Amino acid sequence: MTITITAFERSPDGGMGLARDTRVRWALEEVGQPYEVRPVSFTAMKAPAHLALHPFGQIPTYEDGDLVLFESGAIIFHIASQFAGLLPTDANARARAITWMFAALNTVEPPILEIAIAKFQEGDKPWSKERMPLIAERVRNRLAQLSARLGDDDWLDGEFSAGDLMMVSVLLRSRPSGILNDFPRLAAYVARGEARPAYQRAFAAQLAFNTAPPLAN
Amino acid sequence: MTITITAFERSPDGGMGLARDTRVRWALEEVGQPYEVRPVSFTAMKAPAHLALHPFGQIPTYEDGDLVLFESGAIIFHIASQFAGLLPTDANARARAITWMFAALNTVEPPILEIAIAKFQEGDKPWSKERMPLIAERVRNRLAQLSARLGDDDWLDGEFSAGDLMMVSVLLRSRPSGILNDFPRLAAYVARGEARPAYQRAFAAQLAFNTAPPLAN
After folding, report:
1. Are β-strands A36-40 and B67-70 bridged in parallel, bridged antiparallel, or unpaired?
2. Which of A70, A77, B125, B171 shows its CA 20 to 30 Å from the CA of A106?
3. Which 156-215 residues of chain A touch chain B by CB within 8 A?
4. Which pLDDT tens digit goes with each residue over A39-81?
5. How far apart, in whole angstroms, are the C-alpha atoms of residue A16 and residue A11?
6. Domains of chain A
7. Is the ipTM of this complex over 0.85?
8. Pick from B74, B113, B149: which is nearest to A110 by CB?
9. Degrees to nearest 5, angle at CA A10 with A6 and A16
10. Among chain B residues, CA nearest to A76
């Protein structure tokens, strides 16, 4: 059976790798699984056929035979459970790696995403300029705590895991704001993630996908 | 070994059950595991001893022998993995139940939590009143999609699972705003969750904990 994921027909970031399909591509590259990508337009994303796969009308989705999943966290957890390479075998270490996945998605990503929401959905509002520093401060607070925990380690808990894959992916979304680079340990942590061959393949694949000429049809 | 979780010494909601220890208590009640609760004050939460358990200085944490976990999602996933009753045995159904856990935490909870952030951290700002309907609209969009997917089913995917436990817990946080009751199917879904004996025990335990007289010391 072939694993098929969905991605934006054209990512709003133009191929910076910040859309959530990149993290799924990365996970599949880490475990050495081939996959196909089905592009979804913004119109198709809200249509019944896609909503049947993803009730919130987003990307990515994951299809493998009869199984349909959505949510990048759930997809990467599934990949990490099916194939070796992304989760430790020791039970406690495994539970801690999974903890970092949830921390990335529920504690670190929401304030980072608020920056994009404030920019793209409230950028024209009279409060936009005055409010941005408040949001940035919330992101800084989280990153300061994360940096303190990481310390001088390479990864969050021993060997590289799905927890690091998710945290690096989430932190990448704070780089356009300039905030990431104010935390040298975290910037170096993200750079270590980006240097992995699997990440490089995933990044190149999404870039090619997002910059390919439109199909004639 | 005894399972020990942490909770607010006094929850800011005064015992409404919206703090994240309640969902962990609920999971432990569903699987029939006893547990102890260690209260943490707002001061202690940001001190080194607690930060060693929870790098973001929050509750709940989970301790069982040598294992220390944080993040309610990770804790509930761990409980559901260790003990029967919260995840299906069929592999695909299990992956879908886990998907709903991630959807609750990464897609549904963030906009709901924004309402509280706007109220408690930006309630004194000049834009507070004008901005609130924008945030509420984002919550409504998500809940409309979720309600469409749930339809007339009792639970999100077959039998009650950790995915429902998490989604109900997250939706409960939208009730004070009045938004939940605008979606009758979701309000009934939440009520089904609240009617479960395990939820009732968890709710009663957190209420007793949050309304007990302070310890003399």
Report:
1. unpaired
2. B125
3. none
4. 999 999 999 999 999 999 999 999 999 999 999 999 999 999 9
5. 9
6. 4-85+198-211 (3.40.30.10), 91-196 (1.20.1050.10)
7. yes
8. B113
9. 95
10. B99
